[in-house]
Amino acid sequence: MTELTTTDRKLLAALKRDGRASVTTLADQLGVSRATVQTSMERLIQSGTIQRFTVDIDSSKGGEVIRAVMSIEVQGNLTSSIVKALKKMPEIVSLHSTNGAWDLVAHIETSSLADFDGLLSRTREISGILNSETSILLNTAK
What we know:
Largest sheet: 4 strands, antiparallel
Order of helices and strands: HHHEHEEHE
Strand content: 15-25%
CATH topology of the largest domain: Alpha-Beta Plaits
Structural class: alpha+beta
Shape: globular
């Protein structure tokens, strides 16, 4: 595990606001050199702290997105293989372990109901998933 510096934390916050910001822009925002930003980014990527860069699409500007949350109950000793299988599905944006009645919660995004249905079918075929409940997110308040 890489210990995060103050610069690392500021860089991560800036990237959360704008993942497309240039190294020059980030350096200006953080008040450090381009080389410092580049070195920090490379270290954060190498350590796995930064796992991917992504794009958030404003659905009001085209490109309708179906978003959902899936709660998953897992057969105890198969959790790691189930997580590995779910992480391979590009429609699963994030996957979280949790407490309570459900073992995992997946955040899902697809571009159509047909793709959404396909994801549900593929998920049901994963050995060790005992039960799941999926809710489509209809409106975002914030």
